């Protein structure tokens, strides 16, 4: 949908000016898709940051913690090590980071 929203006149003007396909992509396509890309990056970051269930069910953190994320670490600290204070710290940290990314998302949506 984002690519279809770019006016064909912009590509035509770039071709008339002698822009190659790569230059059209860099100077026409990317600037036009910037708002969409920013929103997608923020939403994917929020989703990935809070992903726990998929990682836990597939790898349980992986060999040597290779696939461990902060949500999985919070679970391990709280329920496996029974360190409720550390688990709470991880949970508050996750909340604060999610809040920051959500604020960025709302700022980007507000510009549209």
TrEMBL record:
Any single GO BP term: transmembrane transport
GO CC annotation, single: plasma membrane
Signal peptide feature range: none
Keyword Transmembrane: yes
Span of domain ABC transmembrane type-1: 1-105
Keyword set, alphabetical order: Cell membrane, Membrane, Transmembrane, Transmembrane helix, Transport
Transmembrane segments: 36-55, 87-105
InterPro entries recorded: MetI-like, MetI-like_sf
Gene3D superfamilies tied to this protein: MetI-like (1.10.3720.10)
Pfam family, one: BPD_transp_1
Location in or out of the cell: Cell membrane
Protein name as catalogued: ABC transmembrane type-1 domain-containing protein
Organism of origin: marine sediment metagenome
